[in-house]
Amino acid sequence: MKKIKQILEFIIALLNFLFHFKPMPDEEIPTVIAPFPKDSLPPVPPRDQPLFEDIG
């Protein structure tokens, strides 16, 4: 009888542990942010100087 009680206590503890971490619904509604459109980038003028100097 003692062994059965230990097994039942273990099963109850295991179920308690598993259901403790059940997912809860978020209370806040996520804000949807519109992506930045690729076509609206301003034109970039060509560079006269290189970005990096060649140190030879």
How are the SSEs placed, and which strands pair?
Layout: H1 2-20
Q: Give the strand content.
A: under 5%
The profile of the biggest β sheet is:
none
Q: Using only CA atoms, what is the Rg?
A: 31 Å
Mean pLDDT: 80
Written as H for each helix and E for each strand, in order along the chain, the element string is H
DSSP strand count: 0
The shape is elongated
- Helix fraction, binned, reads 25-40%
* Helix/sheet category: mainly alpha
Total count of helical runs of at least 4 residues = 1
Which residue ranges are poorly predicted, with pLDDT under 50 across at least 5 consecutive positions?
none
The first-to-last residue Cα distance is 87 Å
Short description:
By secondary structure, the protein is mostly helical.
Report what the structure shows.
The chain is mainly alpha-helical. The protein contains 1 helix and no strands. It has one helix spanning 2-20. The longest helix has 19 residues, at 2-20.
